[in-house]
Amino acid sequence: MMDTVLITGGTGMIGRALTDFLLDRGYRVIVYTREMRESPHPNLRYALWDPARKTLDTTALQETNQIVHLAGANVATGRWTESRKQEILDSRVQSSQLLFEQLSQLPNKVRTIISASATGFYGEFEGTPFTETDPPAQDYLGKTCVAWENSVRQMESLGKKVIILRTGIVLSNKGGALKEFIRPVKLGFATVMGSGHQFISWIHLQDLVRLYFNALANDQLNGIYNAVSPFPVTNQELVTQLARVVKGKSFITVNIPAFALKLAMGEMSVEVLKSVKASSAKIQTTGFQFSYPRISDALAQLVASGD
Ligand SMILES: NC(=O)c1ccc[n+]([C@@H]2O[C@H](COP(=O)([O-])OP(=O)(O)OC[C@H]3O[C@@H](n4cnc5c(N)ncnc54)[C@H](OP(=O)(O)O)[C@@H]3O)[C@@H](O)[C@H]2O)c1
After folding, report:
1. pTM above 0.85?
2. 124: how many CB neighbours lie within 10 A of its CB?
3. Where do the structural domains in the chain lie, given as residue ranges?
4. Residue 93 CA, ligand 1 centroid: distance in Å
């Protein structure tokens, strides 16, 4: 019998891609969502939960062998007001807490919890790429990632295996950051942000989905891994490469100064201005091979297969 995998927030960009990948391989998938919808596939079912109200469909949890925990208010949409920042934190911590409480009380056969976290865990890059044992940043994202990871790791005390994927910027042609980068490029502008020298630790959505699958299917994986390609690039390299792929030579490079980004985006501007370079060495030592280690190949594939 193939495993049943429960994906929280499985309606999002990563969750949808992972769901399709698992269904193609014969898995049964249950998606926890706050909004009921029709299933397009016999092996996929949606189940209701509401972490803010501490409610969930207990049957779904009891049918599950492995959990992928992706749910959380989107970090990149809406301005980071105090209440939005609280929502970003609460949606992640309260949802793990709800899983923890229910798994403590209900008879269940869950073996593994695999959770998203983010490279926002780390501080500013200063010469050595961050590895999984490095300390967290003291800023908002750093503190949020620590609370999120701790809320998931308490499930280890229930005898469950916990795997955490500290994920970089996910590149997909179905939404997320790439859509924002492409918009000005389509108008002929390569918009470099701040100095443009800040590093972006990125990963192709297909590689990330294969990484989640590896965490589900490969018993060797355990603990924390950076989910980033082996070759991070600077903001300037990414934007220029993208403009070349989309526009050939016909584009103008525009620099948006850091102060303008801070004005336009508020505190969230750290997301595009902070230099983040995380190491992929640990996941590669498990034998994982990236299909898209290089940004040029990733962008060429994404643009060619985009809508
Ligand atoms: N995309 C990236 O570049 C990236 C990078 C690093 C880390 N990650 C992390 O990976 C996870 C998945 O990312 P994604 O890009 O697939 O996210 P996404 O497209 O924003 O989807 C997240 C899902 O979480 C659920 N959700 C949203 N707000 C919620 C709330 N207040 N309470 C409970 N559930 C809520 C939604 O499902 P329902 O509306 O159906 O309930 C939504 O479909 C996130 O935790 C994200 O932080 C993503």
Report:
1. yes
2. 14
3. 4-168+202-230+277-292
4. 13
Three-class HEC string of 250-267 = CCEEEEECHHHHHHHHHH
- Chain segment 240-282, per-residue pLDDT in tens: 999 999 999 899 999 999 999 988 888 888 888 999 999 999 9
Domain 4-168+202-230+277-292 of CATH type 3.40.50.720: yes
Residue-wise pLDDT for 192-240, tens only, equals 999 999 999 999 999 999 999 999 999 999 999 999 999 999 999 999 9
139, 267 contact by CB (below 8 A): no
Indicate the pairing of strand 66-69 with strand 233-234: unpaired
Torsion, CA 180, CA 224, CA 62, CA 13, rounded to 10: 10
Q: Is 18 close to ligand 1, i.e. is its CB under 6 Å away?
A: no
CA distance 167 to 145: 11
> Is the C-beta atom of 170 inside 6 A of ligand 1?
yes
Classify residue 259 by burial, with Cβ atoms within 10 Å: 0-12, 13-18, 19+: exposed
Integer Cα distance of 259 and 106 in angstroms:
52
Q: Which two tokens stand for residue 161?
A: 């295996």
CA of 127 to the centre of ligand 1 (A): 31
Cα 148 to averaged position of ligand 1 atoms, centre (Å): 13
DSSP 8-state secondary structure symbol assigned to residue 169: E
Q: What is the DSSP letter of 188?
A: T
Beta strands in the chain (DSSP E): 4-8, 28-33, 44-50, 55-56, 66-69, 112-118, 161-167, 169-171, 189-193, 199-200, 202-204, 223-227, 233-234, 252-256
Is there an atom of ligand 1 within 6 Å of 201 CB?
no
Reference 193, options 247, 248, 238, 245; nearest CA is: 238
276/119 Cα distance (integer angstroms):
7
